[in-house]
Amino acid sequence: MSDVKSQSARYLALHSDHVVARIFWISTLTLLTAIGAQIEIPVKPVPYTLQTLFVLLAGGLLGARQGFLSMSAYLMLGLVGLPVFASGGFGPATLLGPTGGYLLAFPIAALVVGIMVEKKQHVVWTAAAMIMGLLVIFTAGTIQLATVTGMSLREAIAGGFLIFSWWDLLKLGAAIAIYRQLRTKAGSV
């Protein structure tokens, strides 16, 4: 029985090369991002959610390629009609709407975080990688917010970027702590 347990644990380990483990972790981060979208504080024009926490973790824990795949899968679920975006949103209208830029940046942000953490395993570097991921999300999101709503860039920055500063600093701290803990348990740090 313990052989079966240890073999299962090995196949589902975070950094296993086994295809089952890869699919499991890609799917898990996709699902967590969908759940994080539903944990929201409704604020206009863009709600506070936990999505970006999982985007950062996808890039950090899964690496560039698999983090990108996980966030692309998340977008595909919403695109085909599953209510995985904030407020139960789904479909192309959400991706083309005021908040779509944030969502569309998720795969790129996970890719950037993944590329950076694959180069260096230091807490300061990890923080820098995750900050870059957030900047990717907020840059794309703010630009689309301004474009779609007709807000000035200044208004979009205030309402779609600066308003999230404190909230995303909390998520950034949580993402770094979770990442470090899981990487330590995996024996990678």
Structural features, described:
This protein is mostly helical and 189 residues long. The chain has one domain (2-185): Arp2/3 complex 21 kDa subunit ARPC3. The protein contains 9 helices and 2 strands. It has helices at 2-11, 19-38, 51-79, 92-96, 100-104, 106-119, 123-149, 153-160, 165-185; strands spanning 40-41, 48-49. It has a two-stranded antiparallel sheet with strand order 1-2. β1 and β2 (48-49) form a beta hairpin. α2 packs across α3 (51-79). The relative contact order is 0.13. The mean pLDDT is 90.
- Cα Rg: 17 Å
Low-confidence stretches: none
Beta-strand percent range: under 5%
Mean of pLDDT: 90
Helical element count?
9
Neighbour order of strands in the largest sheet? 1-2
What attributes does this structure have?
189 residues; mainly alpha; 2% strand; single chain
Fold topology:
Layout: H1 2-11, H2 19-38, E1 40-41, E2 48-49, H3 51-79, H4 92-96, H5 100-104, H6 106-119, H7 123-149, H8 153-160, H9 165-185
Antiparallel strand pairs: 1-2
Helix pairs in contact: 2-3, 3-6, 3-7, 3-9, 6-7, 7-8, 7-9
In short:
By secondary structure, this protein is mainly alpha-helical. It is 74% helix and 2% strand.
